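step: validate -> pass
step: tokenize input -> pass
step: predict -> running
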Amino acid sequence: MKKNRLLMTLFALMLLVLAACGNTDTKDAVAKEKKTEPKAAPTEMILATTTSTQDSGLLDVLIPLFEKENNVKVKTVAVGTGQALEMGTKGEADVLLVHAPASEKAVVDAGDAINYKRVMYNDFILVGPKENPAGVSGDDIKVAFKAIAEKKSPFISRGDDSGTDKKEKGIWTLDSIQPAGDWYISTGQGMGQTLQVAAEKKGYVLTDRATWLAQEKNLDTLQIVVEGGNDLMNIYHVMQVNPEKHENINSKDAEKFVNFMIDSKTQDVIEDFGKKDYGQSLFYKYTE
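step: predict -> pass
step: emit ->
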């Protein structure tokens, strides 16, 4: 009798051990299945933006952060603001990051863009040859442009309908000057390339401060000659292309990008960008 009880006890213990092993194997199999479960493929989003955000290096910091947080692959098209806005009106981009407020407002008012938000700012500066043949200085950009035109000192224009180009053309208009002649050179290029041409030809050029700081070490023939005027602020906005007006827009990720750009953590990254390398921020977060 005792022998039978002993055998029954041993048999029960064996069943418990086998059950435990089975549960462990099942848990291990489930855990392994979870580990090997493939990650969802990233969605794709097109960002049309100005060359200054690219040439300054800011996008090299921001885009990877956004992509990692949202499992999105961003295709960046860096062109002049005018062309970026045109891409928006044609539905050729999902989200825009630009810096020409008057032109931006027209796109928003026409219903081609929504969720329009201020992101950051810096300022425009006038850069010129160290010899400074036009003798310009101070913070009055209109006086400087007039002096350059009168002396016909070389002036290098982007000529690409970018935000910087629009700003430059507006200043000439304020002075009632129509620049033309051999002294006025239009590159049709981005800010970085236009600064290089100005350095080669020892000409004056209007630039955003961020691109200047990022490129200054390669522009040893140039220096800042005019800065600090109240009319030289350079404001950047972000906006979604309106999916109700344009088909095949990735509005979900576009909205995420707008929210990402105005998020306080991203704003801190923007303001911190450049401080270590240049001793100052290249862009400043926009606080209401």
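step: describe -> The radius of gyration is 29 Å.
step: cleanup -> pass
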